[in-house]
Amino acid sequence: MTACQALFSRGVLRASNCPKSSAVKSASFFARTYSSSFVCSGRPHLYRKNCPSSTKNASSYTTIAASLSTLQPGRSSTFLLSRAGRRTYANMTTAAPIDQLVKQVDGLSLDAVKAKFPDTYPDLNIMDLYRAHLSTVLSEVTGVDAALIYPQLGWTSGLEKGDMALPVPALRVKGKKPDELAQEWAAKFPDTDPLFSKPTVSQVHMSFFLKASPLVNAVIPLVHGKGAEYGFNKNDGLKDPKDPSKGQKRIIVEFSSPNIAKPFHAGHLRSTIIGGFLSNLYSGAGWDVIRINYLGDWGKQYGLLALAYEKYGDEEALQKDPINHLFQLYVRINTEMTAEKEELTKRKEAGEDVSALEANSLDEQARRYFKKMTDRDADALAMWKRFRDLSIVRYKDTYARLNIHFDEYSGESQVTEEAMNEVGKLMEEKKICKEDKGAQLIDFSELIPGKEGKRLEKPLVRKRDGTALYLTRDISELLGRHEKYHFDKMIYVVASAQDLHLRQLFKIIELLGFKDIADKCQHINFGLVLGMSTRKGTVKFLDDILRDVADKMHEVMKKNENKYSQIEDPLATADVLGISSVMVQDMSGKRINNYTFNMETMTSFEGDTGPYLQYAHARLNSIRRKAGVSDEELAKADLSLLTETSAINLCRHMAGWPDVVKNTLKTLEPTTVLTYLFKLTHALSSSYDQLQVVGSEPELMKARLALYTAVQTVLANGMRLIGLTPVDRM
């Protein structure tokens, strides 16, 4: 049955010129009216490819090759299914396994679950359905309201301890000890429950195991039906999930933020990887995500760079490799300036008048050049803009390798003097800042009582010469972003070294009278990457790091000549594997922890590494290729044949993926996802001996391949969430 016929068979489609009261379900009617625009719920869903554009009420379409041999012999037509129609069809195909699961429990319905347990989506997260059912059963056993039981049902630390656990003390039932209640309730739990086995008890904890058959028959079709969307709940990003017309919530993620005209060094690596992950996470949850790169693109150092280019610049070198050429120029001029300062200091100490030399020093020339920039001198700004634009072009190449893009390249230069002056006036009016030796500062100890005020210290907001500092710029930038984007949340992905700076920023915004804006802001911090310097102590740049790990992976790949010869583009694959190794090592621990960069460990195929995840995905793809089973055959697989413990455990892991994504929105830790992926791949690796695909009896082969195809989908979804590109061969 084609997608079109399936929609007809369920009464989803009808002809637009047919009364809604008519039961248009027959394929023959479809054949007679193929030129009509077909509608579902009043919106065009299906129409002939060459129909007038006026009938097309959708932004993108999928071509459906309808099987019309039985409808119009000898003739084939192509029809288009709109985005809304595809969504309807997808919901039909994924609803079936959930419906079958619901039917196994008397009195259970999806609508009842959603009404009784807020923030549940059993049609997207199968475990919501299981939790709702278990809460209802336990309510009858314990006498405790099901709504109180539901939030206490949590995951166990491992599958061997069950799929869900209930800490009895959390229900606060009086009269008996929790361990006695646990035993009593376990004994009362019905033996014939369709979804759960009898619970086991360990002291005050009750553990519950899902029955295999209902789970297997529900989760595999659900994963196949949802595909790349499995695990993600777009309702999380709606302003009002009950009324989607109110639109999405908007989040700004500011991350990476290198300094222009300087290579992308390892210090920016963590911000980039974590920020990319968070952007993917919120996008998957249905938020409108704005990715901003706030560049370090303003200051006296760019005056110094302009001097260096005037003295030593090479146009050909600039065009070929702008960032490295500009960086080399900056290092050279900075070395000269340092030496010059040391010489002037010696002469001054010797009693010599060096005022004339100081007035024409490199430092003073750089200051004067930057003053021209702030005064909007056309030539000075043109040079600066050229450096900035060339840097961004190069950065984009690096970001593309990391699967990252930005919606806006902002920067310190984009904050106007007028905006900062307005902020300065407002701080004076609110008596937030005060003068100190000609400068303007904020003494938080005078504004906020107790330890909190002292911890925020006394930051400067204006120098004696009137120059604004980073804090002033950040205040203006934050307020400007809120005015421009009207965001619901904003995340700064910045190293833990800036903890104090961000606390000061948010508190100033609050003191200015914008507490509502301050409350929307969050600082996501992280520790340092150690061992990233060369032997000379200089910083190692990211492009060099990625080249080194790609070379390392290429060497490993070439050791298997047979597999290597089958890879279409070995160098590109090696690059993806190298990037995967860097990113997974970065995400393996909690963000706040420092970690040591270790090339040998990260590029290994053994242990919990990026190459290990990629190998797991590529192996599943290889099994699918060798089996040679079509999607149509796979959809008919008899899943009741999957009775092995390893197969059931893989289904238990897959059922938990939506919960992992939901929990990650709370932790905002990449390692939450990574830990899950390694548990999944460990279970996968241990299953191969028990679940042979190629060479098995045909029906058993289909069932096992259906399982492994679902696992591959979940694995790929998790890998893409953390920013990896799953490879098909390696």
Description:
It is a single chain. With 730 residues, this protein is α/β, with parallel strands linked by helices. A hairpin with a 2-residue loop joins strand 7 (200-202) and strand 8 (205-208). It has a five-stranded antiparallel sheet. Strands 11-10-9-15-16 form a five-stranded parallel sheet, sandwiched between helices. Strands 6-8-7 form a three-stranded antiparallel sheet, with helices on one face. Helices cover 52% and strands 10% of the residues. The protein has 31 helices and 18 strands. Helix 10 packs across helix 14. The radius of gyration is 31 Å and the shape is globular.
The neighbouring-strand order within the major sheet is 1-2-3-5-4
- Class by SSE composition: alpha/beta
Beta strand %:
5-15%
Count of helix runs: 31
> What overall form do the CA principal axes indicate?
globular
Helix percent reads 40-55%
**pLDDT below 50 for ≥5 consecutive residues: which ranges?**
1-93
Distance between the termini: 36 Å
Mean pLDDT: 87
Q: What is the number of E strands?
A: 18
Q: What is the radius of gyration computed over CA atoms, rounded to a whole number of angstroms? A: 31 Å
